[in-house]
Amino acid sequence: MSGSNVVRPNSGSSNGLTIRPAFNPDGDGIAALIDAVFGEYPGCVFDRNGEFPELDAIADDFKNANGRIWVAVNDADCIVGCFGVKYDDQSAEAELHKVYLYKDTRGQGMAQRMMAKALAWLGQNHPDCATVMLWTDTRFEAGHRFYEKCGFARTGESRILDDLSKSSEYQFRFDFSAYQKALRF
Fold first, then answer.
1. How many CA atoms lie within 13 A of 54 on its CB side?
2. How much is the pLDDT for 3?
3. Using CB atoms within 10 A of its CB, is residue 76 exposed (0-12), middle (13-18) or buried (19+)?
4. How far is CA 128 from CA 79, 84, 89, 172, in A?
């Protein structure tokens, strides 16, 4: 359960990758991943200390929010992807967070595997969940297509963040209660 290597991995095929729960020491590997993904988009600035302090105790951050975060790792335990979900009992709504994959890992089914793991965990641990939502940067168009492929729909809501990237985000939602009913067939 030690922290992952933060050297940029050669991720290769998703077939050789493992999904496991993230631990607090994985924050450095997740930070390297987010930094690399942000680097793909003009104007996206990664400021770990100012905007991502939760990475210092990432597993605790998700646990304290009734959630869980997973990482995809290669054989050397280098993080090549992450995917988290938090749950709000009051609203019966979950929110996806920290959904990132290195570019050379995308398009091989890993994001779908991580989504399936998160939704299965959510159904087991929070069966009263009605909806799953997320916010995603307007620049992350491939991510938008992925979410839509998974059954999420844009709500028409957007927001502008007060961050170094001057981010503008779209909101997506997914009817989790209907999803759970469909699984019962």
1. 16
2. 46
3. exposed
4. 31, 18, 8, 20
Report how far residue 69's alpha carbon sits from residue 144's, in angstroms, rounded to the nearest whole number: 20
In 52-103, which residue ranges form alpha helices assigned H by DSSP?
A: 58-64
The Cα 104–Cα 102 span in angstroms is 6
Question: Tell me, what's the pLDDT at 65?
Answer: 98
Q: What is the pLDDT of residue 181?
A: 84
The one-letter amino acid code at 23 reads F
Residue type, 150: C
Give the position of tokens 């749950």. Answer: 87
> Per-residue DSSP letters for 85-129?
EEEETTTTEEEEEEEEE-GGGTTSSHHHHHHHHHHHHHHHH-TT-
Name the token pair of 104.
């050379």
Where in 23-130 does DSSP place strands (E)?
Answer: 68-73, 79-88, 93-101
Between these two residues, 106 and 7, which has the higher pLDDT value?
106
Name the helix (H) or strand (E) containing 20: strand 18-21
